[in-house]
Amino acid sequence: MKALIRKDLRLLAPYWWLILPGHVLFSANGVISPEFLFWIGVALAASFTVGLAVIDWRFDADRFVAALPVDRPAQVRARYVGAIGAAVLGTALYVAYGSVIVAAFPARLGWRTGAGAWNSPEGIAVFFLVAAALVLILLPLLFRLGLVRGIWSFGFVALAVMAVAISRVSNAGAEAPSQALVEELAVFVDDRGAAVAWPLVLASLMGLIWLSARLSIAGFRSREL
Amino acid sequence: MDDLLVVERIRKAWDVVALEDVSLRLPPGHIMGIAGPNGSGKTTLIRLILGHIRPDGGAIRVFGDDPGLSGRAIRSRIGFVLDRPISYEHLSVTRLGRLVADFYADWDEVEFQRLLDEFELPGRRRASALSRGMRVKLGLALALAHNAELLVLDEPTTGLDPVFRRELLARLSAIIADGRTSVLFSTQILTDLDRVADFAVFLRGGRVVFSGPKDDLLDRWAIVRGGPELAAAAGADAVRGIRRSRMGFDVLFDDMDAAKPYCDGPAVLERPTLDDVFLLLGSKESQ
Question: Which whole number is the average pLDDT over B123-152?
Fold first, then answer.
């Protein structure tokens, strides 16, 4: 698996330099609103995670990799490690740029503070969960269906998830989707206490990653290259 | 010594049958060439051997194991050049070498560098800037730098100029000189088989129409070219194919002695080339 991860890092090396200026360029638009920063950040994180997820397909190399001495579960695990790592990196950059923007424009934006704020543990956790959720849905589809059909299917699934999310936000009367999610998580943590709630959140995330990876392994094993 | 590769009655079908009842054996220290037209099942067979796909029936053993179950261990002992010889073409030759080296415990960097020198491959050049021939050379260098015992090459000579084709085939002959390494390659060019293969396999429509030692075929088989009276030979046991010609018929026999009685009069007996065998095998144009 280490060889696979190193391979991905080597393949991405020519693009690493784009990450920082890309964030500066797009995150600057976050001054418009915290909601805007959130979704810009998610889009940027998704560009790493999805970019990493499809890298072998991007280079039409799935048969080449499959001819190397690696087994398919290891390929799947390496892909998850890379994609989750990319989501962590995207979250770190979101927090970093958010902090810069808030420091530069403290009064103008009226960003919330305390529980439910963008930079509270709940705010950061929601960002990470949304960024990670993209790959947890995308990867099983890619491994089962390949690049083209996988992306198409992901589009349909993403539309369905968005429709449900928007209806929930509308019903809750929240101002913005991300804020509604952060508030829900803040209520969940308040109700159960941090000592219980955060391990539960972590366990749920690990469970989702495990389930998604199992689906990916099963799909990839049955797929012909 | 045990055969490195054993394929027994393999069947594979998608919408149409890709391979049907295909069997072959490759012992160590030999070269096997698989020939056939487009769509005959050559690449499907290679994909099965590499464990990329699973057979619907029959069995494959590589180094005694099933590639569907022990794929990783098997592939660590296989060197490969696929129909698209190189992936990640945006990387330089050296970086591509480093990327592949990580996957093999037996990677020999000195040997890889020696092969780059031998093949005159510039380490700093991007793979995408290499010609088709240079890419095949790079694929071969990557395949040879980890002491592979079985080399699998999918149409490596396609698109190569005659000079490099000859070089490549000579290189394959040199690879098996250690008596331990074997080579399996597919091709549409029958002279490739003629030059280097110890065993020839002809595929047509997913079926093996010939499989065996090439020299046996060239030494023992015969073609009789003659007039219309040769149509009478069509029912003989040793006849493997018959086709109309300008004179009358060309008849392929798998036994020279069985062919001799048909050579009286204007008919002539010849040793067949692989082209002759491939064209005539299975044809029944006497009706």
Answer: 91
